[in-house]
Write the structure tokens for this entry.
Amino acid sequence: MLWFWIGFVAFVLVMLALDLGVFHREAHTVSFKESAVWVSIWVALAVVFGACIPFYHEHGTKAAIEFFTGYILEQSLSMDNVFVIALIFAYFRVPQQYQHRVLFWGIIGVLVMRGAMIGIGAQLINQFHWILYVFGAFLIYTGFKMAFAGEEDDIAPDQNFVVRLVKRFIPVHTQFDGQNFFTRIDGKLFATPLFVVLMIVETTDLIFAVDSIPAIFGVTTDSFIVFTSNVFAVLGLRSLYFLLAGAMGLFRYLKLGLSIVLIFVGVKMLELHHHLLPHDHPVAHFLDEYKHTISLSVIVGVLTISVIASLIAAKHDPHPEASGEEPALPPDSPLVDPTTDPIP
């Protein structure tokens, strides 16, 4: 199994090197067509990878179902992340041609952080099985919180502690210097607003990972499946952002669908049927025998219904934010002065 880990990590590194070194060497605005192509590529790679799992994984088809369930779950949970990233970019007025660079290096940090969290989570579960019940209760709480959260609960970039933290350790210039994270002015090193945005994106993903990592452990405790499904979902996040950021208002019921999914996974982790039914009860046996297929069906079904309902509602009662326009910018920003030109 070690060779599978090494091979998969090598594959990811090669794809990332091709992404930045070949396809996105020069800063440019990512078009809808380009993002659609890359979304298709990442989805196709995930499908091929999942289809090959039965041929080398000891659990065969069961592991493949777990992978696809985890991948769909993680990809769906990342939709909220896409919306928050769009708000951050708009708030700090990040030029479109530099956004891919932020997301690229942000994803490098995300892969490291999530890899560490998955490793810690797997060790905790191996040592203390009851931690699954804690994860389950947390997901149920998160699901209800997500369902009833208002717009005022969204992350406010100007209140993010990263802004204050970065400015405490290194001076921050008010202007962008191309796609550079740092710049020198009169021999003094400054962080550009692009670096601050990168740090905020990293911290917001860490917050989202607190929800998504326990959720994937509700699907499987196989570390390899957890890690690979997470990685494929994260790798496709950049292209998904450029594809959907301007149309997030269309998916008005997606958050409700995600909350139902989180509650379902949380209840599943609590294994209530083991406590309410005898072990040899036909219903308990059925739930144990087909739990992976049931999980995949419920998650896909709920998300599909929420998306269809959102599109129908948007068609009959369109909101301004569903028009694909960028969100309104705030009157001021803690870093960027829109009246000044970029550093030459």
